[in-house]
Write a structure and sequence with these properties.
heterodimer; A: alpha/beta; 5 helices; about 40% helix; B: 7-stranded antiparallel sheet; about 45% helix; elongated
Amino acid sequence: VRKLLIADDEDGIRSLVRMTLESDSYEILEAADGDEALELARKHHPDLLLLDVMMPGMTGLDVCRALKGDPGTAHITIVMLTARAQDADREAGQAAGAESYFTKPFSPVALLRKVDEIFSAPGNGS
Amino acid sequence: LMNAGGRPRSDVSRVTALLAVVVLSAFLAGAWNLYATRNQLRDEVQGSNRTTARIASETILANLGVQKQLVAGVAQGLIEDVSTGSLGKVRGDLRLMREIDPRILRSSLLDRSGFVVVTASADEAGDGALIGRDDSRCDCFTAAVENAAPYLSPSIHFGDEAPYLAISSAVRDSSGEAIGVVVAEVPVSVLSLLTQSLGVSPGGSVNVFTTQGVQLTNVSRPGTAFPNYDVFRRAVREQSGTLQAPVPGKSRDRLVAFETVHETNWVVIVEQPASAASIVATTKRLAGFGAFINIILIVGAVIARRLFKQLEAERVRSSSILDSIPDGAVTTDPGGIITSVNPAIESLAGWGASEVVGRPFPDVYVLLGPHDQPIEWRDEFLDKVVQSRVVATSRGYDMSLRTKDGRPVPVSHMLAPILGRGGSLAGCVAVVRDVSYEKELDQMKSSLISTVSHELRTPLTMIQGFSELLLSRSMAPDREREALSRINASSERLARLIDDLLSVSRIESGRLVVRAAPMDVREAVDEVIAPFTEQRRLTVDQAEELPHVMADRDMVVQILTNLVSNAVKYSPAGAPVHVVLQPVSDTVQVTVEDQGLGLTKEELAKLFQKFARVDRKEVREVSGTGLGLYITKSLVEMQGGRIWAESEPGRGSRFSFTLQVAEQEPPTEPAAPPSTVDGGQSRIAIPTAGEGVERPPASRQRRDA
C-alpha cells in the first residue's frame, strides 16, 4: 500500500482526491494547510505528495522547498496542484524542487492515470 | 491765486513741446523737399514762420492773460479793505501779488477818482513819491472802470524806470460801482523774454511791434514808430499773413510772417532773409534726412524692443509650460545635447539642470528594460526622432529610468522632434512620466484576476471532478450522495461568487441606483432573520420610538442579510445572535452581535477589503467569497451611513451600521398611484463606490410625491 498525502485548504478538493484515489493500493492522508502538510510528510513519509500552491500561511511552494531541502524528506515525490496555469507558476514549482504539476480544474481519471504513471516509472516506488 | 503763478511756466513748456513738434515736422517736411522749387521752399519757410508768429502771439496772450487774472483776483480780494479804508491790508495784498508774479514791477491801488493811494514795488522807498499821482486820464484807469473784465492797456507806459505794460482791474462794491482800480505794471521786456524762446533759422528774428511800427522787443526802450512798412499796413487790416518785404531795421527784402496779438494793437513779426530760403531748405533737407534716420532708429528700437519682449514672453511662456507640467520634460538640440530640463524630471531622475544641460541625452537618462538591463536606445533615438522626425514612444513596453542613485523608476516616455520654421529640426523634447502608480494598479489588477480565477476554479474543479467520478464508476450510495451534495454546494458557491462579482462591478462602475424612501428598519430586520430562526436563536432589541429611515429597502435587506448570515456562520451552533436597533442623533444604528470566534486587530483592519477572508483553521470550512463585507460597506455608504466592527478574539463580534432618519413619517394613506413614476422615491445614481451620497432632503421628496 502506497501512502499518498493531499494538501489543500479546500476540503472539497481533498474529498475529491480521496474518492478518486482511495483503493486497496493507496492510503490517503489529508492536510488542510502548509504547516499540517509539512508535519504529516515528516511523520508519515508518504510516497507521493499532492500539494496545493495557494494555501493560507505556509504556501505549497514553501512546503516543497522545506521538504526538498531536508535529506530525510527529499525523496518524497511532489506534484504541485495549482489553479494557476501560468508558466511562471510551473517554473516556480520546478525551482522549488517539485517533480511534476497538475492544474485545477482536473479530471479525476487523468489524476489517477498520472499517479499510476508516477508510481510505475522506473526508480520510483518501493 | 496761489496756483496762478504756476501756469505761465507750464504754458511755456507746453509751447516749447509744441514748438519742438512743429520744428520737427518742418524738418520732416524738408526731407521730402529735395526737388522742390524755390517758390515751394519759400512757401514752406513762410509757413513755418507763420506758425512761429502764431505761437509767439498765443504765448504772449496766454502769459498776459494769466497776469490779468491775477490782477482781477487781487482786485476782488481788496473790496472789503478798500471800502473800510484798511490801506495797510491793501498794501499787503499788493505785495503778495508781486511775490506771486515777480515780473510785476509795481502794483498800485488808484482811488475812485484815479489817484494813486497805495503802491508796492521793489523800491518801497521811492513809492511815497507816487502817492497822490493823478492817473485818472490813463486808459488803465478809465478802461478798468468801464470794463468788467481786467484790462491790458495797448500803449506803452513810460515811468521813471523801464517802460511798462499796464494791466488793471476795478475794485467794485456790492452795487457794482468802482471804488478803486488795481494796476500792475509789467515791464515791456517781458515780451522779449517770451519771444526769445522761439528759435528761428540764422539771420532771422522774432519781434513784437505795435501796428504803428514801434518795436517792443529786443530794445532797451521802445523807440520811434515806423508805420510806413507794408507789414504794418497789412497788420492793421488782417490778423495774420505772409509777405516778402523789408521790415524795420532790415533793409533787404525779407520773408515775413505776421500775427496780431488779440485785444492789443501789437503784431508779432517773424522774418528771415529771402536768400536764406535755399540755405534753410538745405538745412531742413539735411535735418529732415537726419530726422528720417532718427525715425528709422526710433522705430527700429521700438520694434526691437517689442520683439525682444515677445521673445522674452515666449521664452517665459514655453519654459513655464515645461516647468508646470507634472511629467518630466527634457529638451535637446538637434544633436541630442540637453538644452533644458524641467523640475519634474529633476526630482524624478535626481539630476539637477546644471548637472545635465550640455550632455548627450542618452548618456544621462539610461532606460532599463523589464529585467533592469540598460536599453541601447541612442541609435533608435537618433534614427527615429532626429533623422526620420517621427515621435517615438515606450507604449507597450515595460521600461524604467535609472535615477542618479541607480534606482529604477517605472516610466513611460515619449520623444518628439521640435520642428522649426519650414520643417527644419530645431531639437527634441522628451516627456517622461513616472508610472509607478499605474504599474502598482496593474499588479493589483492582475492579482485580483488571479484571485478571482482561483475562487472560480475551486468550485469548478469540484463540480467537474465529482461529476466525472459519478459518471466513470459505480460508487457506494453514501459516497454518491456526498459527491452530489459537493456538486450542489459548489454550484451554489459559484452562483454566489458570480452574483457578488457582479455586485462589486455594479458598485464600482457606479451603475447601482439607490432608490431611497422612508422605511421601517424593524420590519426589514424581521424579514431578514425569519429564515435563520429555525436553526438559531435570534433576538431583536428595539428602542420604543424608532423613526423611519431614508434608505433603499432592497439594499438594507441585503446589508442585514450579509451581517446576520456572517454572525450565524462564524459562531458556534446554538450561540445566539442579537440585533439591536437604536436611534443615535439623526440616524438609526443597527448592531448585529454574535458570540462567535471574534477577530484580531489585523483581521479587523482588513475586514472590509475585497477578497479579505479570515484565514484561520476554525473558519476554513466556512464558505464565502471574501466580497460580502466589501459589498455591505459599499451599500451602507450609498445610503449615507457608515459601518464598523468591534471585536476581540474569542469574545464575539459586533457589526454596526447607521442609516439616516427620514425627516417625516411616511403617509398612512395608500402609496401614490403608479402614474407618478417614482412614487415618493428618488433615484440617485451613485458616482463611485464608497463616496458619500448626496441626497435631496426627505421633506422635498415628500412634496414631490
